[in-house]
Design a protein that fits this description.
heterodimer; A: about 260 residues; Rossmann fold; four-stranded antiparallel sheet; about 35% helix; B: about 325 residues; mainly alpha; ABC transporter involved in vitamin B12 uptake, BtuC
């Protein structure tokens, strides 16, 4: 469980987040949406302790985030930044094995358990057939699947993803969300996704948080959050909202 | 599995090459030696044991350190053009050496000349300044570090030029000669002083191989995977800078080894630091031993500065690498 209490956050003089109060319970699938610069990515980094905040305002499983060692943290939370680039050409397998880092002892050679977890993660993300290819030579969708596998290899209870599908085609977008939801149901994984794809989020998530200018504007099930007037006001565009009869979830179309 | 076996074969070949280099090169030189002579003549034994072997061991350790630190800096700075000198350690060392030569002090501590001592002070001072400028609360930004290093290097180069201008011919010659890098040591105490630092640095970095792999993906990914980024950066930058400071103060700024050897070994064994941090130092050491043998013999009985050889071999090789990479993209 992640609990954020009355958090204000500044980068220098600029206030990025204001009065954030938030509880994310175990097993939730949460989407954070909002315009660019709303503070979504920063909020995600704060949850993982990558961006440090003073005081005990961010609590993970009853302990302040900054009281965890990085390795302990990595066993609880997996995080995927917007972009991951390796300057050197690691293989797919090597990248997935990086997820086992918090579990390795001594000089860090993986044991039987590590191998098993890595194999499972690669199978789940459907990348087991190209483990020896170079990560840098993969397509965007393949890269994203490898990175998610690497995060899953950490066996985290919570996984935070920053725009995981923004570079992917429709097929891979649906696939990523589908796999995440399966994993959430199967392993009680908690998932928090920052995304601009409101339609996909509405389809797969059971909770949506709408942010604007560093504040949480709306928080609830997608049907409650995606109100016509709020969306038009915050995103500054006219939108058409309806229910997709195939999924019975809301969808939004912006128009001029 | 297949990869593991391949790596073992490569490692065996590397070790064989290293041993071969260390045993073979002492026999080559302006006076060539063979095994029969070694048993018969005492002067041959003196040449071998007191002149060639100490120099070759020292050369190996210098090459070992340069390649090791080159690999580390390329990982930490996430930049495959980084060298052990990117942070300006060598320019600090050079400034120290040049000041020592100009001042003409004949001071000697623990058997080390004033040039060595001044250049070591210069290196340590430079690293401290750069570290102080580049550190922030959330870690060290590679970009700031590189920029600071380059700026400090330029600044120190201008000081060096100024001192050059003030110096007379003999002093200028000695300064230029120092800047070319050289391995003309004839006693064991250089190797013996460098050895423990090499061992310590290697042990520490090897134990951090997994973390170094992850840190190449950037500090956010590294943190999320459990790497204590700030601590690793701090120890690694400082540790390797001290090692390089010592190397530079003993041997001058020998170029290209720290840039090219990690590159070459990454092509052979891949970027995994568990493999790279063994292969690169071994090959760096052996490679520099051969460069130095060339430097000793090519215009014998005179000697070329080894830095000239590494640059002449390294430069074209690196251009070839860059062209190859361009073609690939």
């Amino acid at each position: 469980m992640i609990e954020i209490r009355n958090l204000d956050f500044f980068y220098g003089e600029n206030q990025i987040l204001s009065e954030i109060d938030l509880i994310i319970s175990d097993g939730e699938f949460v989407a954070i949406i909002g315009p660019n610069g709303a503070g979504k990515s920063t909020l995600l980094k704060i949850m993982d302790g990558i961006v440090h905040v003073s005081g005990n305002r961010v609590i993970l499983d009853a302990k302040p985030v900054h009281s965890y060692h990085r390795k302990q943290m990595a066993k609880l939370i997996g995080y995927l930044p917007q972009e991951t680039e390796f300057p050197f050409s690691f293989t797919v397998e090597e990248v997935v094995y990086m997820g086992r880092f918090p579990y390795l002892q001594g000089i860090g050679y993986p044991g039987a358990e590590d191998k098993k977890v890595v194999q499972e993660a690669m199978q789940l993300m459907d990348i087991a057939n190209f483990t020896h290819r170079k990560f840098n030579e993969l397509s965007g969708g393949e890269k994203q699947r490898v990175l998610i596998a690497s995060a899953l290899a950490q066996q985290p209870k919570i996984i935070l993803l920053d725009e995981p599908t923004s570079a992917l085609d429709m097929h891979h977008q649906i696939e990523i969300y589908h796999i995440l939801r399966e994993h959430q149901k199967l392993n009680k994984l908690t998932i928090v996704v920052v995304t601009h794809d409101i339609n996909l989020a509405a389809q797969f998530c059971n909770r949506m948080i709408l942010m604007n200018m560093g504040r949480i504007v709306n928080d609830g099930i997608p049907d409650e959050v995606l109100k016509f007037h709020t969306i038009q006001e915050i995103f500054g565009v006219k939108v058409y909202i309806d229910i997709n009869p195939m999924t019975n979830t809301l969808y939004i179309l912006p128009y001029e | 599995m297949k990869q593991k076996i391949t790596f073992r074969i490569i490692l065996l070949l590397l070790i064989a090459f290293t041993l071969l280099s260390l045993f073979l090169t002492p026999l080559i030189g302006s006076t060539s030696l063979n095994f029969v002579e070694l048993f018969q003549s005492s002067s041959a034994r003196i040449i071998l044991l007191d002149i060639r072997l100490p120099r070759i061991m020292f050369t190996f350790l210098v090459g070992f350190s340069l390649a090791l630190v080159g690999a580390i800096f390329q990982a930490l700075l996430r930049n495959d053009l980084a060298t052990p000198y990117t942070l300006g350690v060598s320019s600090g060392g050079a400034l120290g050496a040049v000041i020592a030569i100009k001042s003409g002090l004949s001071l000697s501590i623990l058997g080390f000349s004033n040039t060595v001592i001044f250049s070591m002070l210069g290196s340590v001072l430079t690293v401290s300044i750069i570290y102080f400028i580049a550190r922030t609360r959330s870690g060290i930004a590679p970009v700031t570090l590189i920029l600071t290093g380059v700026t400090i290097s330029l600044l120190f180069s201008s000081f060096i030029l100024f001192i050059h201008y003030l110096a007379d011919f003999t002093e200028t010659y000695r300064m230029i000669r120092w800047l070319m890098g050289g391995l003309q040591v004839t006693r064991w105490h250089y190797s013996l002083s460098l050895f423990p630092f090499c061992v310590l640095a290697f042990a520490y970095f090897y134990s951090q191989a997994g973390a170094l792999n992850i840190i190449t993906a950037g500090h956010e990914t590294a943190l999320s995977k459990g790497v204590d980024v700030f601590r690793l950066q701090k120890y690694a930058f400082f540790g390797s800078s001290i090692l390089i400071g010592i190397v530079v103060s003993f041997a001058g700024p020998i170029g290209f080894i720290g840039l090219i050897v990690p590159h070459l070994m990454r092509l052979v064994v891949g970027p995994d630091h568990k493999k790279l941090l063994i292969s690169a130092p071994l090959f760096g050491g052996a490679f520099l031993v051969w460069c130095d043998t060339l430097a000793r013999t090519i215009i014998a009985p005179a000697e070329l500065p080894v830095g000239v050889i590494t640059a002449m071999l390294g430069g074209p090789f690196f251009i070839w690498l860059l062209i190859k990479r361009q073609v690939k993209h």
